[in-house]
């Protein structure tokens, strides 16, 4: 039986994650730059070869690959980030990094998987449990090194608390898992940073949009997609009341 697109996304993200754990072990005594380079390349090569074998008629947009303009006229495009959170990956012991594999088809994200290899978790469409309700102040997840001003404004407006974390995929996954409630980013990302996480978040019933409330649109000529919101649906209006006026 031919695997579904959901199954392909989940399996390839998971297998790339296993490969990255092996790279981490192999390069444990190397420099962080060598570990980053090896992880990026090996995961990218694996995903490109696997997609070429399993979905040979589809186009691919990868962070680590040359952007082939054929994707702009393609009906189906896989959008992948072979290693999201290279800094965290390079720091032995950190678990907040990810692998993203998503499929865009005819204008929509139709499948996606976010593997969190160091946590032994893969979140994948089509069925993603909704995060459990959490009492208390909303938790706004931000970068541990460069939290955007808009996220801090949202935290203040919601009288919330901050949760620091690494990669974009790990941050969105934390909302899906109920470990945080709001992820707001502004200041620079690309389609591969958010495509798979957004597909997973939508499957879990979460709100996803640009910070002005407009839709997140993928497979564009310019692959920059600099801002997004992923949050619990009941918090969306309050978050957008802050972000949409920027």
Automatic annotation (TrEMBL):
<dbReference type="InterPro" id="IPR050725">
    <property type="entry name" value="CysQ/Inositol_MonoPase"/>
</dbReference>
<feature type="binding site">
    <location>
        <position position="83"/>
    </location>
    <ligand>
        <name>Mg(2+)</name>
    </ligand>
</feature>
<dbReference type="GO" id="GO:0050427">
    <property type="term" value="P:3'-phosphoadenosine 5'-phosphosulfate metabolic process"/>
</dbReference>
<dbReference type="GO" id="GO:0008441">
    <property type="term" value="F:3'(2'),5'-bisphosphate nucleotidase activity"/>
</dbReference>
<dbReference type="InterPro" id="IPR000760">
    <property type="entry name" value="Inositol_monophosphatase-like"/>
</dbReference>
<feature type="binding site">
    <location>
        <position position="81"/>
    </location>
    <ligand>
        <name>Mg(2+)</name>
    </ligand>
</feature>
<dbReference type="GO" id="GO:0046872">
    <property type="term" value="F:metal ion binding"/>
</dbReference>
<feature type="binding site">
    <location>
        <position position="84"/>
    </location>
    <ligand>
        <name>Mg(2+)</name>
    </ligand>
</feature>
<feature type="binding site">
    <location>
        <position position="193"/>
    </location>
    <ligand>
        <name>Mg(2+)</name>
    </ligand>
</feature>
<protein>
    <recommendedName>
        <fullName>3'(2'),5-bisphosphonucleoside 3'(2')-phosphohydrolase</fullName>
    </recommendedName>
</protein>
<dbReference type="Pfam" id="PF00459">
    <property type="entry name" value="Inositol_P"/>
</dbReference>
<keyword id="KW-0460">Magnesium</keyword>
<dbReference type="GO" id="GO:0000103">
    <property type="term" value="P:sulfate assimilation"/>
</dbReference>
<feature type="binding site">
    <location>
        <position position="63"/>
    </location>
    <ligand>
        <name>Mg(2+)</name>
    </ligand>
</feature>
<dbReference type="InterPro" id="IPR020583">
    <property type="entry name" value="Inositol_monoP_metal-BS"/>
</dbReference>
<keyword id="KW-0479">Metal-binding</keyword>
<keyword id="KW-0378">Hydrolase</keyword>
């Amino acid at each position: 039986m031919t695997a579904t697109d959901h199954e392909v996304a989940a399996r390839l993200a998971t297998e790339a994650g296993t490969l990255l754990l092996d790279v981490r072990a192999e390069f444990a005594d190397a420099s962080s730059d060598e570990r980053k380079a090896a992880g990026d390349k090996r995961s990218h090569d694996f995903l490109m070869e696997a997609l070429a074998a399993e979905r040979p008629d589809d186009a691919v947009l990868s962070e680590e690959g040359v952007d082939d303009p054929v994707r702009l006229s393609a009906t189906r495009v896989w959008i992948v980030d072979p290693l999201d959170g290279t800094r965290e990956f390079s720091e032995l012991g950190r678990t907040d990094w990810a692998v993203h594999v998503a499929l865009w088809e005819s204008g929509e994200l139709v499948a996606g998987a976010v593997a969190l290899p160091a946590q032994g978790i893969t979140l994948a469409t089509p069925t993603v449990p909704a995060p459990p309700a959490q009492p208390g102040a909303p938790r706004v997840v931000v970068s541990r090194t460069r939290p955007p001003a808009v996220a801090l404004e949202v935290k203040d407006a919601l009288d919330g608390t901050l949760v620091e974390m690494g990669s974009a995929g790990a941050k969105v996954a934390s909302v899906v898992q109920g470990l945080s409630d709001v992820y707001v980013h502004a200041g620079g990302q690309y389609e591969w940073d958010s495509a798979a996480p957004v597909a997973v978040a939508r499957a879990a019933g979460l709100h996803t949009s640009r910070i002005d409330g407009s839709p997140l649109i993928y497979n564009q000529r310019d692959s920059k997609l600099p801002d997004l919101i992923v949050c619990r649906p009941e918090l969306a209006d309050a978050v957008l009341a802050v972000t949409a006026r920027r």
